[in-house]
Design brief:
Layout: H1 2-21, E1 25-29, E2 35-39, E3 52-56, E4 67-68, H2 69-75, E5 84-87, E6 102-107, E7 113-119, E8 130-136, H3 140-143, E9 149-157, E10 166-173, E11 178-184, E12 189-197, E13 200-209, E14 212-223, E15 229-235, E16 244-249
Antiparallel strand pairs: 1-8, 2-3, 3-4, 5-6, 6-7, 7-8, 9-10, 9-16, 10-11, 11-12, 12-13, 13-14, 14-15, 15-16
The structure holds protoporphyrin IX containing FE.
Protoporphyrin IX containing FE binds next to strand 3 and helix 2.
Length: 250
Amino acid sequence: MKEMTFKAALAVAALSAASLTQAAVVGGESDNTYVEAGTSTVDAGPHTSGLAGIGVETNSMNIDDKVDFQFLSVFSPSDIDGVHTLSSPIDVDDPDHSGMGVFSFAQAGSEDVWFGEWSEAGGPNFEHRTVYYVGEKGNVDATMPTSGEVNYAVTGINRHSAGNALSGTLTADFSGNTVSGSFGDGNLTIGIDANISGSSFSGTASAVDSAGSASGVSVGEFYGSNAAALAGMATFSGNSDYDTAFGGAR
Ligand code: HEM
């Protein structure tokens, strides 16, 4: 009991120290059964706490133990799309780094902002595929543009293999408070139609490919000075093959 009280006090202290120096890490995932995006908590080996991160649930790892994308991006090579793919087993024993599944993720601009997908074993079946986005908000709330249109060059990640990333443009209209546009790869096209509230956005999404089409929802965040970057996800209830993580920069 005593220890819990001490830990709680530490957590409060850490939280207030963090809020003095930085805003917050904000993001989401389509489902948090296997992976969860959030502030990195692990300070061991090559991992650093306090950054945009992700945790995975395995026999030897807990979803609350989140590691920073920054190191994961250095460790795993990026492909022609600028997408990093990390697949276990990684040769670390304590904790056992095997059975963590396959992560494909990319960075939005040069911010500590990341988006991507996880699945149990990667392609072609992408079992239990989950999409996510997460980033450090920085001073975006104090510097959000209040007028004008800004185009973001956006990448989308859906059942990733090298060369199949989606690309396109999302336009943020800071006068009308909307985010709209589309991105595709010649087969799948994802459309976004959302409203801005604060430095977040949410709305509808559409998916069209040779197999059919679906309607879904979109959520996302702006990050960094003057909304330098954005990231989010489009999800399609009952049609999760269309679930797509996206991100980009001005
Ligand atoms: C998504 C991917 C990864 C996750 C979720 C993850 C998670 C973790 C966790 C939970 C710990 C234990 C921290 C603690 O003791 O409190 C850890 C330690 C460690 N990780 Fe990772 N890790 C990942 C990728 C990697 C990669 C790519 C490497 C590179 C080789 C790596 C190397 C290490 C090392 C060396 C340690 C320290 C082990 C020790 O203390 O002896 N990890 N990791």
